[in-house]
């Protein structure tokens, strides 16, 4: 029997760990990931300001898995009828059960010039490029940095640019502009959360244009539906997501069972999940992690003999304890009806990232993140 997990992000890694414990000893478990590393993507924006975090948020999957075979390869297609996966290196991988955990890719919506001129923010190389471009802006005496899309990633990216400009003592020379076609930042989140995020952006002097839809970009200006073009020196695009190329760019709809096809499940951002309550689950690390328990149980159930009957699959319900967003050195935490900002929110944000690394990554990486977080803490223990 062979079970394949496609992608080693939040969904892929946590599902793999559960399957390692629960699959029969003679079952093959294969994880296919195009980088071979687990990227703690919700900290990616921080690499713009602190490139030294790169190593802390990138962990080889082989260090995080036990019995699973890790294959560094690109999934190019999935045939759910034939139960085969096509791989970039050539060849196919047959499976008895599969989990598609390939995450999402950046959507440019065919807006003329946007993909050509903007830097997306999904992978390490994107954060590194954003850092390099920002240094280029500083070398020429400053300028305008436009971030398109004010969701979780755009807000945090804009916050990093603004904080970096402050750290470099050039805040007056750099105008960080965050634009979104929605009426507010972090659209879809509760109003008190949105207001608090807006407050943190204001504190860092980030210029926010809402109700502002980007329509196109040239080499030096972003164009909008209802506003004059804005000249830019750097342009980052976090304006939307689409499904992985291996699914032809689609984020297929799955219900709370996470079943994509017989014996094939989709977990995390790769699919648009409508949960047991009929609610659309937000694409997020938090949701990807939380879905893995039901995904593991349903995948295992799909492998059981059922004498021709459909397997009994559970329904997943997304229940979020709250949301956290960092804005430069500040943070906003929504915990139930409560909103925290300032030091308390920063502590919560930092500890969540560190707890994730300590539990699912490695203690060494968690300590590296703490070291970066806690100014003047060079005496933290090392694990050498
Ligand atoms: C800057 C930024 C900040 C964010 N902040 C937050 C936050 O504060 N809170 C929150 O909940 N979420 C946040 N998110 C969103 C969160 O990171 C994603 O929702 C989450 O990563 C989705 O997890 P996943 O496992 O579905 O996909 P991913 O984590 O994207 O993992 C997908 C994996 O599949 C691999 N892969 C992709 N395509 C292929 C292929 N064809 N073949 C083989 N392997 C492939 C990738 O290399 C990757 O390892 C943020 C995202 C960004 C970019």
Describe this structure in words.
The protein has 384 residues and is of the alpha/beta class. Helix content is 31%, strand content 25%. The chain folds into 3 domains: 2-104 and 243-302, FAD/NAD(P)-binding domain; 108-237, FAD/NAD(P)-binding domain, CATH 3.50.50; 322-373, no CATH class. It is built from 10 helices and 25 strands. Helix 9 packs antiparallel against helix 10 (363-373). It starts with a strand and ends in an 11-residue tail after the last helix. Mean pLDDT is 91; it is low at 374-384. Residues 7-12, 32-35, 39, 41-42, 44-45, 74-75, 101-103, 121-122, 152-153, 156-157, 244, 246, 268-270, 283-286, 288, 324-325 line the site of flavin-adenine dinucleotide (FAD). Flavin-adenine dinucleotide binds at residues 7-12, 32-35, 39, 41-42, 44-45, 74-75, 101-103, 121-122, 152-153, 156-157, 244, 246, 268-270, 283-286, 288, 324-325.
């Amino acid at each position: 029997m062979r079970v394949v997990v496609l992608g080693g992000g939040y969904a892929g890694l946590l599902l793999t760990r559960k399957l390692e414990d629960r699959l029969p000893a003679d079952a093959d478990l294969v994880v296919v990931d195009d980088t071979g590393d687990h990227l703690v993507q919700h900290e990616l924006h921080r690499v713009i300001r602190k490139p030294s975090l790169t190593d802390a948020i990138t962990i080889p999957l082989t260090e995080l898995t036990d019995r699973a075979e890790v294959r560094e390869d690109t999934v190019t297609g999935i045939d759910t009828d034939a139960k085969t996966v096509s791989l970039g290196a050539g060849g196919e991988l047959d499976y008895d059960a599969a989990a598609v955990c390939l995450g999402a890719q950046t959507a440019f919506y065919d807006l003329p010039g946007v993909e050509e001129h903007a830097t997306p923010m999904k992978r390490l190389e994107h954060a590194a490029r954003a850092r390099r471009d920002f240094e280029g802006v500083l070398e020429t005496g400053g300028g305008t940095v436009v971030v398109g899309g004010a969701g979780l990633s755009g807000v945090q990216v804009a916050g990093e640019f603004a904080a970096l400009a402050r750290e470099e003592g050039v805040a007056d020379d750099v105008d960080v502009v965050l634009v979104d076609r929605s009426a507010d930042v972090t659209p879809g989140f509760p109003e008190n959360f949105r207001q608090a995020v807006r407050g943190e952006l204001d504190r860092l002097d980030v210029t926010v244009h809402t109700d502002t839809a980007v329509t196109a970009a040239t080499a030096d200006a972003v164009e909008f539906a209802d506003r004059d073009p804005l000249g830019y020196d750097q342009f980052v695009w976090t304006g939307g997501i689409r499904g992985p190329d291996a699914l032809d760019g689609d984020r297929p709809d799955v219900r709370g069972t996470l079943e994509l096809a017989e014996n094939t499940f989709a977990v995390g951002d790769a699919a648009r999940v409508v949960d047991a309550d009929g609610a659309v689950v937000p694409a997020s690390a938090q949701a990807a992690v939380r879905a893995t328990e039901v995904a593991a149980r349903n995948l295992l159930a799909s492998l059981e003999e059922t004498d021709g009957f459909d397997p009994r699959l559970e329904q997943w319900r997304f229940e979020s304890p709250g949301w956290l967003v960092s804005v430069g050195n500040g943070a906003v935490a929504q915990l139930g009806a409560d909103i925290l900002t300032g030091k308390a929110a920063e502590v919560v944000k930092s500890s969540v990232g560190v707890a994730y690394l300590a539990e699912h990554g490695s203690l060494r990486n968690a300590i590296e993140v703490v070291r970066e977080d806690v100014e003047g803490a060079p005496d933290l223990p090392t694990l050498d």
